[in-house]
């Protein structure tokens, strides 16, 4: 595709302008990993996301570490490596909570729940929401619909969350 040469060029420009040890370079690596993942090139995606994660940790960029952990976890999920995915999603969730980045928090929480659902562990998926879910997230799920990716899996996931979304008693 046309995207890969552009992403590689952007990566090279960032490395020259900011140096190869800059958090923005980690972001470029994560973007490249996301492209490879979308193309089904999982080995290359894993390599790029892992490099982004290493760089984010080396530069102590918690925000980029959260993004890279999420990137790598999605690759692990796509390849059926659920235990590795759970570890990275949990890291992304912990960092997002620490940073107060709600969009990343919601994405990580949803992804953790989805992996547990894929493993057939409905109770663990609900436990994440019970422990960390917020009222505004519950309200957002009232309107949620499966619109992309595996539609049937999305519908099953939303059905699984119904007991959490529509609690009998509010506290």
Question: Can I get a quick summary?
Answer:
By secondary structure, this protein is mainly α. The protein has helices spanning 3-18, 23-38, 42-58, 62-78, 82-99, 102-118, 122-132, 135-143, 151-165.
Blueprint (SSEs and pairs):
Layout lengths: L2 H16 L4 H16 L3 H17 L3 H17 L3 H18 L2 H17 L3 H11 L2 H9 L7 H15 L6
Q: How would you sum up this structure, described in words?
A:
This protein is mostly helical. The protein has helices at 3-18, 23-38, 42-58, 62-78, 82-99, 102-118, 122-132, 135-143, 151-165. Helix 2 (23-38) runs parallel beside helix 4 (62-78) and helix 5 (82-99) packs antiparallel against helix 6 (102-118). The longest helix has 18 residues, at 82-99. The model has no long low-confidence stretch (mean pLDDT 87).
Oligomer: single chain
Helix and strand element order = HHHHHHHHH
The biggest sheet amounts to: none
Termini distance?
Answer: 51 Å
Average pLDDT figure: 87
Low-confidence stretches: none
Shape: globular
Radius of gyration: 17 Å
What's the tally of helices?
9
Strand content: under 5%
């Amino acid at each position: 595709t046309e995207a890969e040469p552009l992403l590689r060029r952007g990566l090279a420009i960032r490395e020259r302008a900011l140096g190869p040890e800059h958090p923005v370079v980690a972001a470029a690596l994560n973007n490249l990993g996301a492209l490879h993942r979308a193309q089904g090139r999982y080995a290359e995606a894993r390599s790029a996301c892992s490099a982004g994660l290493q760089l984010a940790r080396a530069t102590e960029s918690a925000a980029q570490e959260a993004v890279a952990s999420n990137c790598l976890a999605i690759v692990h999920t796509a390849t059926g490596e659920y235990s590795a995915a759970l570890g990275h999603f949990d890291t992304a969730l912990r960092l997002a909570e620490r940073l107060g980045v709600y969009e990343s928090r919601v994405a990580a929480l949803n992804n953790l729940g989805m992996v547990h659902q894929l493993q057939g562990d409905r109770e663990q998926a609900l436990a994440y929401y019970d422990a960390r879910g917020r009222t505004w997230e519950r309200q957002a799920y009232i309107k949620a619909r499966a619109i992309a990716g595996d539609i049937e899996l999305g519908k099953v996931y939303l059905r699984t969350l119904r007991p959490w979304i529509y609690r009998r008693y509010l506290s």
